[in-house]
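User: Structure please.
Assistant: Input sequence and predicted structure:
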Amino acid sequence: MKRCVKRLTVALSLVVLMALVSACGGGNNNNGAAENGSATPAKTDKKTYKWFVARGVESPPAVTVKEIADEFSQTHPEFELVLEGTGDRPSYLQKLRTLIASNEMPAMFDTDPDAYASKLVQQGKLVDMKKLLQELGKYEDFRPVALQYQQFADGTMYTFPIEYGIEVFWYNIQMFKDLGLEPPKTFDEFIKVAETLKQGGITPIAVDGKDKWPVLRYLAYKPFRLTGNDFIENVKQGKASFKDPAGMAGINFVHELGTKGYFQQGFTATDYTAARDLFLAGKAGIYYMGSWETMNFANDKLSAEMKDNIGFFRLPMMEGAKTAENDYFINSGIGVAFNQETFDDTMKEFVKFLLEKYPEAYTKKGQFSPFKYSLDQAEGMPEIFYNIQDEIAKSGSVFAVPWDTRLDPATNELLGNELNALSLGAHTPDEFAELMDQAIQENAPKYFK
């Protein structure tokens, strides 16, 4: 019996040895070449990276990044970038937080340097983008304001920009001429223009009230002129009050615009596209939005009445202003953050490739790059493009920060909901100020110490 077992053991050992020899020498070699000289393609394990997009998967930034990602995958077949988006900004933020809470943080996602993102940084979940850009030698290639916009108050940066723009008041040139109006330079003049448009049977201002942030801009205009960003940086921590002169100036301005009917009828249910289309249809005199809309204002599909009939003016001034005429909302949009856990060597190589290709590819789509990159007249862009490009070159170094990137999440949500109520007259200015101060007192200590 023992002799049989021994023979069986030897036989099995010979079988294993022959299999090993066949695998190493008799079959495919390390390069995948068979004995007959034919080649067997090496199998590549593709890894999919998801980018959860807030700005729309068909937006110029998203399309440009995806095009570059597809080009990168030609030399890195293991890499695949897939984009996923959702509807409006509030829905996006809710889903993003649900994904992260469920340990399903995307490899890339859009976020502002707000209180929620700060929490993710504290938990070690985000890649330090300032450090990465400096390591790749690309930090100095960006416009300084583009990077400053992405930074937290302490100067750290965990997102990087793929957009850049100034925010201006677009206006219907012919409407203004017909009513003898000039672009306003002060807020007093702005109100007079709005009233004249209304008396002329024209909706003065088209605004996206559904997404909330466009109305929030109107709340921030006067506080920025009076204090720069000091008011919002202090009020978010409860070190200042909405009842302070700067706060009440903004509150009263929004209350006046809404209750006097200077915003369009039903503005609280009007989304981004509908507000823009109202202006482009010649049904509103003024529309506040960023320079990312420039090419929509040079579209061949515009009516003859709107073609070459759109101008822009800066944020008005006011008595006691501490900011200059060329200081206003300048931003690099919602930034892109990277999941520290999934940021491997392949993703790092992709980011390097993206930074090389992006400036030219993005700008040639008629957009304005966060990089120090511009187009000359030989590129044949519409006149309005070059007008905005020149305005960007003249813009100041002090920029207004969006309040929704500074307030804690709970207060920010409340502010968005109640601001439209203020505009409709459901709150008096004093009631609104008291409501917001109470929210700051309750919520801010959880985020700001």
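The first helix runs from residue 2 to 26.
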